Amino acid sequence: MAPGSRIDTKVADRVKEIATGLYGDQAPEITFHPQCFLLSGHFAGDDAARTKAFLEIANDESFQALWFARGGYGACRLVESLIPELTDGARGKLYLGYSDAGSLLAALYKEGYAGLAHGPMPADITREGGKAAVERGLAYLVDRAPDALEASVPAGARTAAFNIKILGHLLGTPFQPDLTGHVLMLEEVSEYMYAIDRTLCQITSNPGIKKVAGIRLGRCSAIPDNEPDFGQTEEEVARYWCARSGIPYLGRADIGHDIDNKVVPFGGLGSV
Amino acid sequence: MAPGSRIDTKVADRVKEIATGLYGDQAPEITFHPQCFLLSGHFAGDDAARTKAFLEIANDESFQALWFARGGYGACRLVESLIPELTDGARGKLYLGYSDAGSLLAALYKEGYAGLAHGPMPADITREGGKAAVERGLAYLVDRAPDALEASVPAGARTAAFNIKILGHLLGTPFQPDLTGHVLMLEEVSEYMYAIDRTLCQITSNPGIKKVAGIRLGRCSAIPDNEPDFGQTEEEVARYWCARSGIPYLGRADIGHDIDNKVVPFGGLGSV
């Protein structure tokens, strides 16, 4: 299902082709909920349609995974009404997505769900070379393939990953998850460097976030030019806020809004 | 002083001319701290220079007001180091500004300061017709002129006003002020409608903000076009989030990033 923006039916067709190409007769059955293709203003259907689609898949024990189809914007609108409607069937499956879908991953993590992961989505097929990202997502969903994982994940720490602005918008809400002791990986796309700086100021001054084991910085891509130039790179900005807040800066993370985006399980390997 | 971006010396000259034009021999002495004209990457001088300028004016009892020169970006970087350095001299004066300066107004309000207000700044002179905004700012600083106030302020409620994204970035930080019982006025500029929606989702789900007496929506200007169109106006979005969160929607507020921006004292008239 698509919690924010819609996808085209071509995306669904290509993803199924890729699954068949990879696994042949053993290919997983992939169901794209019809809601994925709806259009209601900015969204893939209105809030009620997106909520219903999420619950129909999440609560149905016959589905082994809920693969978020695309980011965009809209997941945060669903969280409050979704959470009370989840049944036990929702706990036993994988959830994979990133970007805007991070709002739902966060809320489910706060509810104690295992099986949540930040990683590729079907809509990544629209990127040049996007087949690699979709194959990686499938490899994780079907086989928990170790080479789909972000390289630092196997070291065994609890992990979580977010888009920087999505995490910023979770702070101070009832859906902010407890990331104590986690390696927190952060990535961004299409934001001005001053806006990245501003959100990292917020994130690193949050008392809950200060309890993370450290921060790894993913890729920050398509940063618009600004006049005057901000004068610092994203890594300088991340190092600055980590140093200032006393949060260990642990280096780069292999995640981002691109085809190389690796999988980061929420809670680390122990939780999947 | 300028807590974020720099101003040109012409701005300072024009503002002094306007003060002389209005008050003649009785014109207030306006000191533009030299820091206002510095340039360090994105900022009006580095963090240390901006912090020093703020403290030199705030802590000096011979100044009756600290008028933030301009918004832009950078105030949030100063808050943590400023607060412990403030002396009693800082409590007895007015502070006027908006936009990015809201980060500092919020932190000072949390510290129990009276005399804080959201309203015009010297840099507004660069807007077409900006003289009216600067004159309004002066009328408030010099005379607490009632006609400088936002129209709902004299009704007597406790009030506060913020730029929407600046308030979003304050949530979950140690500098989020207690706005219990306040009429909260919110304005925005140059943000996509989906981004306004997302930040209002965050704001109205924050447990502290839920205690406000109600929300008034200021102007949301220069909203970039988006594909697909969001399909709702800013007032529809504000009404939606107020209804959903149980916060009373009280109508429009006469504030915004424009020359008609009226003054909103933090805490209401009782606090100035």
Protein architecture, described:
The structure is a homodimer of 272-residue chains. In chain A, 32% of the residues lie in helices and 13% in strands. With 272 residues, chain A is α/β, with parallel strands linked by helices. In chain A, strands 1-2-3-8 form a four-stranded mixed β-sheet, covered by helices on one side. A four-stranded parallel β-sheet of chain A has the order 4-5-6-7. In chain A, α1 packs across α5, α2 packs across α3 and α6 packs across α7 (193-205). The longest helix of chain A is centred in the N-terminal third of the chain and has 15 residues, at 9-23. The model of chain A has no long low-confidence stretch (mean pLDDT 96). The A-B interface holds A 39-42, 73, 76-77, 80, 168-176, 193-195, 197-199, 201-202, 205-208, 226, 228-232, 244 and B 39-42, 73, 76-77, 80, 168-176, 193-195, 197-199, 201-202, 205-208, 226, 228-232, 244.
Attribute tags:
homodimer; 272 residues; alpha/beta; 4-stranded mixed beta sheet; 4-stranded parallel beta sheet; 8 helices; 8 strands; 32% helix; 13% strand
Task: Summarize the topology.
The structure is a homodimer of 272-residue chains.
Chain A: H1 9-23, H2 47-58, E1 65-67, H3 76-82, E2 94-97, H4 102-110, E3 116-118, H5 131-143, E4 159-163, H6 164-170, E5 183-189, H7 193-205, E6 214-221, H8 234-245, E7 249-252, E8 264-265
Parallel strand pairs in A: 1-2, 2-3, 4-5, 5-6, 6-7
Antiparallel strand pairs in A: 3-8
